[in-house]
Amino acid sequence: MEYEPIIGLEVHAQLLTDSKAFCSCTTRFGAEPNMNTCPICQGMPGTLPVLNRKALEFTVKMALACHCRISEFSRFARKNYYYPDLPKNYQISQYELPVAEGGYVEIETEQGNRRIPLTRIHMEEDAGKLIHDENKPLSYVDLNRTGVPLIEIVSEPEIHSPQEAAEYLRALRSILVYLDICDGNMQEGSFRCDANVSVRPKGEQALGVKTEVKNMNSFRNVQRALEYEIDRQIEAVKAGERIVQETRLFDPSTGATAAMRSKEWAHDYRYFPDPDLLPLRVEPSLVERLRNELPELPFQKKARFVEQFGIPPYDAGVLTASRDLAAYFEQTVALFPQPKTVSNWIMTELMRMLKGEEEGIGSCLVSAEQLAGLLKSVDDGTISGKIAKTVFEEMYATGKDPAAIIKEKGLVQISDSGELAGLVKQVLDDNPQELKKLLAGKTGLKKFFVGQVMKTTKGKANPQLVNDILNDELKKRGFSE
Amino acid sequence: MHTNLYEKPATELCKLLANKEASSVEITRSFLERIQAVEERVRAFVTVTPDLAIEMAQEADRRIAAGNNGPLTGLPIAVKDNMCVKGRRVTCGSRILANFAPPYDATVVRLMREAGMVILGMANMDEFAMGSSTETSYWGPTRNPWNPEMTPGGSSGGPAAAVAAMEAPVALGSDTGGSIRLPAGFCGVTGIKPTYGAVSRYGLVAYASSLDQIGPIGRDARDMALILNLICSHDPMDSTSAPMEHPDFISVLDKPVKGMTIGLPSEFFSKLEDPDVDKVMSETRVVFKSMGISFIELSLPHLDYGIAAYYIIAPSEASSNLARFDGVKYGHRSAQFESMIDMYCRTRAEGFGPEVKRRIMLGTYALSSGYYDAYYLKAAKIRTLITNDFKNAFRTCDAILCPIAPTPPFKIGEKIDDPIQMYLTDVFTIPVNMAGLPGMAIPGGFSRNGLPVGIQLIAPHFQEARLVQLASAFQRETDHHLKSPVL
Predict the structure, then answer these.
(1) What beta strand segments (E) does A15-98 contain?
(2) Interface test with B, best of A37, A97, A276 (most B CBs within 10 A)
(3) Do residues B370 and B428 share a domain?
(4) Residue B294 domain flag
(5) Is the pLDDT reported for residue B33 higher than 90?
(6) C or N: which end of chain B has fewer Cβ atoms within 10 Å?
């Protein structure tokens, strides 16, 4: 029998507000433990939460970008559980009435585009962190992250493969980053994902028993964890075992998932409406304002790039993965209107250099103007494509203008046919053995002679011109193809 | 005849201060001496802070000298032990906070500081405001100044007793199900629970967040007006604080009440079995009638479910509000434990008293998965029905009159082992919190045993001024509020 996996994802995205969800503490990352706290986020007796309006606006933006229904009235609820990183021992979240319901996220699959339906998007507050002493049985609590606003985006269980799950997450992250409401950093935990996984015989309608998989801190690990968990469940079902509803942790070092001790996590969260916060009203006028403020989203931008610039969908996908990169592309094309050439350069040379750069295009010293300038120099024959790569490396390292580098290093292409003819003659004369073989029919040696000219000119010779002159010269010497 | 400063009513003290006829330090000393003299018999305070009080009084005197004073500058006050005062011990009458000093001021405390008031100390209360007799305090019961064998009522027994015993001219209490009005009634003083949202809850250690409200306790309606003018204001730190302007409560004190209609809910009066309370209620009606007020009988059909619904909602919220007392961050932590969970368990087992534990368990149960709809949700619906009953009632009357409690003050120890009997004490006060209405306790007379019996007036939302107006008129015709216990 064939089995199919059913996956639903719960994504927590940290919102890029300046202050926390219910107090005015900064959300800046990296401060000394407990420095970014106040009586409110420390859960001091008597303190009360006041909603950060910005966090609400960010949530509504995401909901609009995902085509959700925005609830005019929603409620905050308390999720009650005891843990030292949660100073009130309840988390302010939403339960029965979230800010947004329904909606979808569009992804690309091998079978074409798919809409992954969403269940809901709601707001909540983050918990702090425990720091365990390595030598003593002692733990410390850092509440800097406590109260940082999060949105939870819950998908319907309609994701059918680990690849789709990864695609969905990429699409989701890309939307969040486009909206400038989340930095999408999985390693630092500002974009986190838990998965609900079950399997069922293909064609069956009823859902199987699900497990919840946690601790996947990269797209790759999500895929690995899901692949492992799906295989594990299919094997178990085939062996006649029952799947137990449980929470399983992914271990990146082994690639396996393992059950958490269930007793410790058998929570009854006792949700109830938070009496400290009034029912939340999202004014239709606010929704309209935010709708008008929405930027072009990744999916729309990609379609436009294909249409407007005539570049392949693959290129458009790569270029629109980040809003800044897409803007860089557009600025460059505006100055050098050969989209495919620009796209090739960005996707190969630029992205190769950017690999490993945390901030992506944001940290790049080469401006769009400078890249366009470089490409023009190639186009008008000032330098060769090959030299351009060297120039680009220098530009990337120093931020200098391409013209300055070309001038400084004397990299201007030699297109003087008189000069090149002399050089061609000379390399032919200097290598009689090879010339003899070439004239005898070993045409592959043409490349050798072109190479020799390039070598003596340190790559500056116009390769097309060298080729032409070589052909002429060889003809003169009795060569025919 | 020489009268001590502590015997003078707050309005007179304010006049003396403004006219520089008495300094805040003199007045404060007078109250501190009074506390020293009678506190052993009353036990109204958990913590008296004479040094800090004198410091605040000196500061107030400097402000008065500099002409930088307001109407309350230099007036001493007692504060219930559940409002945060930065750096001072605030225990909520509980072992679990026995050594807790909050790092911030409650909004009402900030307002008192800005007004230049002098905090004498923190007044006793039922543990986390859970109780109707101040007997559940970790620090032991407060005594009723009229008779030390009797309870002062609760949970704000300390603040009410302090005012009755003249240990403070005024006090701040909090009221979740009657916690200002019951002790005010039992101690023969005046107290008001403002509309939910009128006074900021920021810094009030929460018992049941949707019901808690801070309010003043004093000798008469004039004291109410003084303090309400200070504490009724919108606070952006409390999302449930009403964004509105409040009237000048002093301006209504002398307004006539002739022509007003007072509603008498049959459900309340049919419950009156105690002859003392019955007598006081009849006398009260005669007084109001003589002032040109007419009465109308009305019905609040869902009142009977008030206590049942309250004992779902309040404990549910409490079970969550009190979760933070876990030994991790502040307050008591068990000295010995084997694991994190064990630490939580032992800390809370040692730190909370039996009534608090009972309510935490009630609330935890009511919110449990599978029971939520049957209990919490149902109680929330009853709450809406009770609120609608009152709204309908106020179409035909300006205020509602009823008793505060079914009986005069009861003995210490009489009900403490019978929670149901204790809970039934609040039958007349709880519905007011459920509906979020303002309710006022006014001295109405005395029992045959010479114990105070209070009456309650209830007004529509944000009409506390009408209560002050009615109480002021009533107190012009009566002298119950002028009587004080012999200590």
Answers:
(1) 69-70, 73-74, 77-80, 90-93
(2) A276
(3) no
(4) no
(5) yes
(6) N
Residue type present at position B217 = I
Spatial CA neighbour of B115 closest among B160, B165, B56: B56
B293 near A CB under 8 A: no
With contacts defined as CB-CB under 8 Å, which chain B residues touch A278?
Answer: 239-240
| DSSP track, A356-425 | T-TTGGGG--S-HHHHHHHHHHHHTTSS-HHHHHHHHHHHHHH---HHHHHHHTT---B--HHHHHHHHH
Same domain for B310 and B428?
A: no
Confidence label for A262 from pLDDT (cuts 50, 70 and 90)? low
Place of tokens 């800390």: B347
Residues B442-487: tens digit of each pLDDT: 999 999 999 999 999 999 999 999 999 999 999 999 999 999 999 9
Decide if B219 is inside a domain. yes
Are the Cβ atoms of B201 and A48 closer than 8 angstroms?
yes
Contact B92 A271 (CB under 8 A): no
Q: Give A69-123 pLDDT, tens digit per residue.
A: 999 999 999 999 999 999 999 999 999 999 999 999 999 888 888 999 999 999 9
The total number of structural domains in chain B stands at 2
Task: Rank A187-191, A351-355, B374-378 by mean pLDDT and report only the highest.
Answer: B374-378
Q: Is CATH 1.10.10.410 what the domain over A417-476 is classified as, yes or no? A: yes
Each residue's pLDDT tens digit, A4-46: 999 999 999 999 999 999 999 999 988 999 999 999 999 999 9
B155 a catalytic residue: yes
- Check residue A136 and give its pLDDT: 87
* Residues B113 and A54 sit within 8 Å (Cβ to Cβ): no
Domain that holds residue B222: 5-259+401-482
Which of A88, A89, A278 has the CB atom closest to B240's CB atom?
A278
Options B23, B24, B132, B179, the catalytic residue: B179
Domain check: are B56 and B155 in the same one? yes
Judged by CB atoms closer than 8 Å, whether chains meet at B317 and A88 is answered as no
CATH number for the domain harbouring residue B171: 3.90.1300.10
Query: Does B415 participate in catalysis according to the annotation?
Result: no
ipTM of predicted assembly, 2 dp: 0.96
Report yes or no on B276 lying in a domain: no
User: Strand B190-193 to strand B439-446: parallel, antiparallel, or no bridges (unpaired)?
Assistant: antiparallel
Spans of all domains in chain A: 3-287, 296-408, 417-476
Verify that B18 and B137 share a domain, yes or no. Answer: yes
Contact B382, B302 (CB under 8 A): yes
Active site residue B179: yes
Distance, in angstroms, between B224 CA and closest chain A CA?
A: 24
Q: Indicate whether B69 and B208 sit together in one domain.
A: yes
Same domain, B19 and B109: yes
Q: How far is B204 from chain A (nearest CA, A)?
A: 5
